[in-house]
# Entry
Amino acid sequence: MQLAMIGLGRMGGNMTERLMRGGHTVVVYDRDPATVQKYQGMGATGAKDLAGIVSQLQSPRVIWIMVPAGKPVDDTIDALLPQLSAGDILIDGGNSMYKDSRARAERLAAKQIRFIDAGTSGGVWGLENGYCLMVGGDAAAVKHCEPIFLTLAPEKGYMHVGPPGAGHYVKMVHNGIEYGLLQAYAEGYEILAASEKYPDLDLGGIAELWQHGSVVRSWLNELAVAAFTRDPRLEKLKGYVADSGEGRWTVAEAIEEDVPAPVITLSLIMRLRSRQEDTFSGKVIAALRNEFGGHAVKGS
# Structure
C-alpha cells in the first residue's frame, strides 16, 4: 500500500527500506535533502516539503511520523493539518509520552483525522530482524494500516494493544523494563571486572557462555558478547548513559498507580549518576563518615 514517512533517521530510514522491500510505495521527507535523495535512489518518491508529501498521496492518506518526541511531533502535525482531509491517518512511531498521544488523538478526531500511536522497538537491527510494534488507535484505522505493520514486524511481532495512547503506554513500560535489565547486566559485569580474586576473567567469553543454556541468556546479553569482543574491558567508552524520557515516565506512572517499582526507579537514578564526574552528595557522605568514624577520605 502507499504511505509517507516523515523523518529518515536511524529508525525511519531503515523502516522505509523494509517497507519498500515488502512491496509498499513510500513517499519520503527529511530535513536533509541528501537523505531524501538516498532513499529516492532505493525507489522511494521524494518530497521537498510536507506539502509535497500530502499532494503525492491518495486518500485516505497514511502518514507515518518518525521524529523526536514532544514539540517536533506537534509541529509536524500542525504543518500537515491544513492539507489533510477527513479519514486521513497519522501514525506516530516515535517515543512519545502516552498522555500526549491521547491528547493528539482527541484533537485530530475533532477534525475527523485518525491517529495511531505505534510504539516501535528493534533499533538499528529492525531492518533485517523486524520491529516489535505496540499499536494503539481506533480499530478501523489500525486495520486499514495493518499491511504496513505486518511488513515491519517479524512473525507475532505486532499487536493492536488498545485505544489511542495504549501503544505508547505499553512501549513506555517496555522501556522501563529495559532500564532494569540493562542495569542488572551492567552491575553483574562490573562485579566480574572488579574482581581482585580472579582478575583475568574473560568477560566476552563469559557473556558467550551465558548465551548457551543459561537462564540469563538474552538478546541484550548477545549484544554484550559483541561489545566485549570489540573492546574486552570497554576502555574506549565513557560510562555516560543518556535517557529518552520513558524511564522517567514509567517511574512517574508507577507512583501514580501506587505500584512499587524499585528496580526500574533505581535504574533510572543510576543513569543520572552516570553523567556526573563527581558528586557533592558523595563528598558530604565521605566527609560525615570521616567526622563520625574517622573513616579515610580521598583528596580531590
